[in-house]
Amino acid sequence: MLARSDRRTERGCSACSDSTSTVQVQLLRFLGCGCTHGSTTLPSLLYRTVVGGALGWGVHPSLGGWATCREDVSTPRRHHHSSPTHVTLHEGALAEQRKRYRMRPSTPLTKDLVLVGGGHAHVAVLKSFAMRPVEGVRLTLVTRETHAPYSGMLPGSVAKHYTKDESHVDLAPLARMAKVQMIHAEVEGVRREDKQVVLRGRPPIRYDLLSINVGIRPKMEAAEGSDRFAVPVKPIDGFWERWETMVHAYKNSEKPTTVVVVGGGAGGVELVLAVQHRLNKEQKASSRPLPPANFILCTQGTIIQSHPQARTFFVEEFERRGVKLYENTKIVCVQADQLQTMDGMDIPFTHCLWCTEAGAPDWLRENTGLVTDEAGFLAIRPTLQTETDDNIFAVGDCASCSKYPRPKAGVFAVRQGPPLADNLRRVLMGEPPKPFKPQSNYLSIVSTGNKYGVALYGTWFILRGKWVWRWKNWLDVSWMNKYGKDLPYELMESNAHKAAPKDAMVLEVKESIKASSMRCAGCGAKVGSSVLKRVLQRLQPAIAMRPEVLMGVESAEDAAVVEFPPGKVAVSTVDFFRAFMGDMYTFGRISALHALSDLFAMGAEPVSAMALATIPFANEQISEDMLYQLLSGACEEFKKANCSLVGGHTCEGEETSLGFSVSGMGEKGQLLCKAGAKPGDAIILTKPIGTGLIFAADMRGRAKARWLEESIYYMTQSNKEAAEILGTHQASSCTDVTGFGLVGHLLEILNASKVRAKLCADSVPMLEGSAHCADSGIFFFAVSKQPATMPFS
C-alpha cells in the first residue's frame, strides 16, 4: 500500500524517524515494526523505463498489465476499472513475448498425476516429463521444501565446501518447464477411497496416479529426550538452517563447545569430521580468538560395521584429529546438556546431532491404509508400485522392496528415477509397468571433511586420497548440473509447445479430443451445472454470511440482492488475472486479496464479491477440483475480510484465469482518495516490491524457488490491517501498489493532488532476486505517451 501522511516522526519508529522536506520523498518499509504499522499490502515491482529521455522506474507487465494489450500476449495481466497512466510496450518486446510464451493448443485434462516429495527420484521424473510431456495429464508436485537437498553433498555443505544453492536442487525451474503445478505444503495422509492427498492447512488434492518420494528421519524413540534436545540430521531439508544456527552460536560463544554426533554409520562418520573441519575453519577466519571446540562420536555398535578395513582407517583418523570415539555405547537418555548411556556414563555436550538408523514418517503407516514393513516403510513390488494399491508408487528411503532389500542410501533413489518415470508413463498410457532390479553392490565415497575421500565398494575397502574426493566432487556436481545449469531449457520449452504424438496421449484424451470438437463458445463454454453445484456445496461452510446479503449463492437466483444501510455509499471494484502460478488454491487467495485491496485502500468495508473464473478443458473430476481449489482459496480470504461470495460466472477456456467484482460500503465524504496529498507529506510503502520481475523470471525458468516463496508470502498478506492503521493515523491520500507499479500508482496520487515528488530509487525496498532479475535483462522498456505529466525530478 502506498499512502501519504502529514503525521511525522512523533510515531517513534526507527523505520520512519527521518524528517521529510517538501521536495524529498522517503519510501519507508514497515514490516511488523514496533509502531504497529504492519506489512499488509500486495507488492508490485520496479522496472526501467525511458521517460522523456531519462531513466526512471515503472511496472513490469508480467504480473500486472494493460487492458489495451492484444489478447495473444500470454502473460498474466491486470484488467482494472480505472484509467492508468498510459504506457505502451515496444512492438519488438511484444513479439518476443508472444513467441516465448504462446501456449500450445489446449488438450482436455483427463488424468491427475501427483508427486509427493521432491526427492532424488522425483527430480528425475520432473525432467523426464519436461522432455517428453504426456498429453491429457495434469502433473502436480507437493513438496515441503522447494529447494531439494542432495544427500551426497550434505557433508560438503556442513564443511562449507558448497553453498546452499550448490547442494540443493531448485525445483521451481524444473516445475515450470514440466508444466507442473507446484504446491508448497506438508502432506498429512492419503484417502485412498476418495483418491485424495490430505494437506496441512489447506484443502486436499485429487489424484489418479500417486507417487511418494519423501524423506526419512532418524529413529529417536529409544532414547528419552532425544526429540527435544538433539538435532536430527534427517529430513535433510530442515537440517541446513539448524546447522547454520549452531555455527552462529559458536562464533558468538565465550565458552568451549562440545559437539556430539550419535550414529556410527558412514553418515555419522562423515558428519563429525565435516563439523570439525568447519568449526576449525571458523576459528582461523575469526577476527577474535574463538573458544576451543571438542568433537565426540557415539555409536551403539562399531563404526562402518560392514567395512572392516574402512573402520580401521577411520579409527586411526579419529585419533589423529582428536575426535573422541565411543563404540558399543547405547544412549538411553538425552538431557539438555548431556547424554546418559546404558552403562551409567554421562557425556556432556553443547550441541547433539542425531544420525542413527533411519525411520519412516509416521503418516505413511498411520494415515494411508498402505501396507508397510516392520520399520514402517511402504512395502513395494519390483514395479515400484505399493503392495496395496496399483495406483500408488513409492521410491527412495521411504519405500522397501522385500524381493530386493537394500540399505537406505541415496544411490538407490537416484537409480530409481528413470524406471519410475517410465512406469508412471506406461500406466498413464494403459500399459503394464516393468519390474526394476536394483544393483546389489554400489560405490560409496566417504569424505573426511578436509577434501579427502575413501572409496568403498561392497564389503571391500578399495581407494583413498584427495583425488578420491575430487572424483566424488565431480560425480556430485555433475548430477546437480543435470537438474540445474545444464538443463536443456530451450528443448524442453520446444517440447512443451509441440502437439504430442498419438502414442504420447492418455487413452481417455483421444475420446475427449473427439468430444471437444463439439464444444462451442456460447453456452457450451460454461462449466457444467453438476460440477458447479458440487463445488458450491463444498464451499458453503467457507462462505461468509452477512446480514446485508438478502440473496446469495444459496438462493440460486439469477442475481444476488444486497441491501446497504441508510447513509452508506456503495464502493465497487473489479480485478482479473491470468494464472501466473500452478498452485490454484494460493492463486485464488491472491486474486481475492488483490480485488479486496482496492476497497481497503479507500477505507471501505467489503460486503459482497462475485467470481469470474475460467478453467482449462478437462473431465468433470479435474474441473471440479480446479474450480474448488480456486474458490476455496478465495473464500478463505473473503471470510477473513467478512465479505460474502454471492455468485459469479465460470467457463472453460485455453488457460486458467480468475477475477472478482467486489462491492463494499463506506461513509459518504469519509473515503480515503488519491487527491489529498500535500507538500511535506511522507510517502509510506508497506511492502517490498519486485513480484512482477520475479514471476517474469519464473516464466523463463530463471527464478529461484526461494524468491518465489518470499514473493508469495507477501502477496498473501491482506491489505486490511494497513488500511485500518492508515485511517487511524489520518493519512491524507492512499492507493494500493499493484498492476501499474510504484511509479504508476504514485503518479495517480500526484496528478490528482497536483503536487510533485522526487523519487529515491535507492530507498525502495526490493524483494530478494528482483534486482538480479532486472540486471539480467528481465524487464521491459516503456515510453510514456504523456512525459510532460510526470511530476518527477
Protein model, in words:
There is one protein chain. With 793 residues, the chain is α/β, with parallel strands linked by helices. Helix content is 32%, strand content 23%. It is built from 22 helices and 39 strands. It has a five-stranded parallel beta sheet, covered by helices on one side. Helix 2 (120-131) links the parallel strand 6 and strand 7 (137-143). Helix 2 runs parallel beside helix 5 and helix 16 packs parallel to helix 17 (620-640). The longest helix has 21 residues, at 620-640. The model is unreliable at 7-91, 97-105 and 780-789 (pLDDT under 50).
Task: Name the poorly predicted regions.
Answer: 7-91, 97-105, 780-789
Shape annotation: globular
Strand content: 15-25%
Biggest beta-sheet profile: 5 strands, parallel
Instruction: Specify the helix fraction band.
Output: 25-40%
Strand order of the largest sheet: 10-7-6-14-26
Instruction: Return the average pLDDT rounded to an integer.
Output: 82
- Summed up, the helix count is 22
Kindly state the number of beta strands: 39
Terminal residue distance: 23 Å
Q: If you compute it from the alpha carbons, what radius of gyration comes out, rounded to the nearest whole angstrom?
A: 29 Å
Structural class: alpha/beta
Would you summarize the structure shown here?
With 793 residues, the chain is of the alpha/beta class.
Question: Which characteristics define this entry?
Answer:
793 residues, alpha/beta, 5-stranded parallel beta sheet, 39 strands, 32% helix
Indicate the topology.
Layout lengths: L1 E4 L21 E3 L17 E5 L2 E5 L28 E3 L1 H11 L9 E6 L3 H12 L5 E7 L3 E3 L4 H5 L5 H4 E3 H7 L3 E4 L2 E5 L4 E4 L5 E2 L2 E4 L4 E2 L7 H4 L1 E2 L3 H16 L5 E6 L3 H20 L7 E6 L9 H14 L1 E4 L4 E4 L3 E4 L4 E3 L2 E4 L3 E2 L2 H5 L11 E3 L11 E3 L4 E3 L8 H19 L14 E5 L5 E5 L2 E6 H17 L6 H9 L9 H10 L12 H11 L9 E3 L9 E2 L5 E11 L5 H18 L3 E12 L3 H21 L3 E10 L3 E11 L14 E4 L5 H9 L5 H11 L4 H9 L4 E3 L5 H13 L16 H6 L6 E3 L9
Parallel strand pairs: 2-37, 6-7, 6-14, 7-10, 14-26, 16-23, 17-18, 17-23, 18-19, 25-27, 34-35
Antiparallel strand pairs: 1-37, 1-38, 3-4, 5-39, 8-9, 11-12, 12-13, 15-24, 20-21, 21-22, 28-29, 29-30, 31-32, 33-36, 34-36
Helix pairs in contact: 2-5, 2-11, 15-17, 16-17, 16-20, 18-19
